[in-house]
Amino acid sequence: MGKIIVEVRCNEYAMRGANPKVPWSPEEIAADAASCREAGAALLHFHARDPQSGAPSHDVALYGETIRRVREATDLLVMPTLGAHTLQDPLERVAHVAQLAREGATRPDFAPVDLATTNLDSYRSPQGFATEDLVYVNTTGGLRAQIGAIRGAGVAVNAVLWNVGSARLLGAFLELGVLASPQPVEVVLSDRIVACHPESDRGLDALLAFLPAGAGPWIALCAGGNALELVEAVVERGGHLALGLGDFPHRQLGQPSNAEVVAEAVRRARRAGAEPATPGEARALLTR
């Protein structure tokens, strides 16, 4: 059986109305991470959140405490966010990564870089758009600066592809040496963000068809959607999967924890012919 890396996207910007088990505080994220590791996850992606309100936080101390607690509880690989559209300055987005990397106990294993300027307005039929002015801006120069800061801090880059344009930009960065081959990537699918490819086999295949030479292992995620429905397609294509309560409340499972969502993904992956990778196996796959 092949190996599939399961990344848990534990909180993103999710509040608790749809599922009260979204972790916010460092203690909650660490406990959640340990349970997810037992369920078969290998990689943790998290957003720092205000422990009481759940508001997005850019407090480096909060990031650091979260990573320390996660490392004390489990051997999961750790990938904090860059804050996406909540921070406008590209170097401000990545400043915490460089600071966290100064100590071994808080150094992230990976940091994501979104290779796109993207319209993030969420659309749901027939209600319409939730917003009509939410744009995530990433200039080419800003992306170069972010990648340079991450690599300069000794942290691996995870290139996030939102569409075919992202894949073509990745090819340019590989050709210019801004990124090095093989470069791990995440491919974003979404039925709600119309700038992305849809959450389907066809949407996935269309994006994978444009992966450039030098792209390494790929991980698929569904922004605002149910990635469990893609497990079989991902396994068949030799990819990996990212999912969690940060993207989707998974109410089809009741009010599950992230660990219960991971366990269901692992069950489906095994049925499709893949075994979950350990963190050590994931590191070898993503950094070879």
Label this structure with key terms.
288 residues, alpha/beta, TIM Barrel, two-stranded parallel sheet, 19% strand
Folded structure, characterized:
- The chain has 288 residues and is of the alpha/beta class.
- The chain contains 9 helices and 14 strands.
- Helix 1 packs parallel to helix 2 and helix 3 packs parallel to helix 4.
- The model has no long low-confidence stretch (mean pLDDT 96).
- It has one domain: Aldolase class I (TIM Barrel, Alpha-Beta Barrel).
- The strands form 4 sheets. It has an 8-stranded parallel β-sheet with strand order 4-3-2-13-12-11-10-5, with helices on both faces. A two-stranded parallel ribbon has the order 1-14. Strands 6-9 form a two-stranded antiparallel ribbon.
| CATH fold node name | TIM Barrel
H/E series = EEHEHEHEEEEEHEHEHEHEHEH
Strand order of the largest sheet: 4-3-2-13-12-11-10-5
Using DSSP, what is the number of strands? 14
- CA-atom Rg in angstroms: 17 Å
**Number of domains as seen in the coordinates:** 1
**Shape assignment:** globular
Number of helices: 9
CATH architecture: Alpha-Beta Barrel
Q: What level of helicity do the residues show?
A: 25-40%
* Main pleated-sheet profile: 8 strands, parallel
What does the average pLDDT come to?
96
> How would you classify the helix and strand content by structural class?
alpha/beta
Distance N to C terminus: 20 Å
The CATH superfamily is known as Aldolase class I
